[in-house]
Amino acid sequence: MDEVSRHHAFDVLRDRLDEPTASLIMSHLAPVPAPDLATRADLAEGLDVLGTQLRGEVAEVRGEIVEVRGEIVEVRGEISEVRGEISELRGEHKRDLGRLMLVQVATLIAAVGTTAAIT
């Protein structure tokens, strides 16, 4: 129904009924031509297409989640390796520090001994 037909229909309804009733009836008429309206079958088909697309997207996201979980496992393994390396370095530094302290103490004792012998 085009705009001219809508106005004509409103005028006829207003003349035979009253303006509020004519307005109410006209408000329930589709503002577009009937062939442009979606049918229940159109909507069902659209829902089927959307459902298929959504299932595909969900499957893709699930696949990505599995990949991310695998990457998390890898990162945890790498973190564990780094912790082991840090622990190893701490042990090496403790040994080195202990040796350095022994050398310093020995040097200090030797210096004190030399000073005592001289005086």
Low-confidence stretches: none
Strand-residue fraction?
under 5%
Overall mean confidence score, pLDDT: 92
Bulk shape: rod-shaped
Class from helix and strand fractions: mainly alpha
Count of DSSP-assigned helices: 3
**Separation, N- and C-terminal Cα atoms:** 124 Å
Number of strands: 0
Descriptive report:
Helices cover 86% and strands 0% of the residues. The chain has 119 residues and is an all-alpha fold. The protein has a domain at 1-37. Helix 1 (3-16) runs antiparallel to helix 2 (19-27). The chain starts with a helix and ends with a helix.
Please outline what is shown here.
The chain is mainly alpha-helical.
Topology overview:
Elements: H1 3-16, H2 19-27, H3 40-118
Helix pairs in contact: 1-2
Labels describing this entry:
86% helix; mainly alpha; 119 residues; single chain
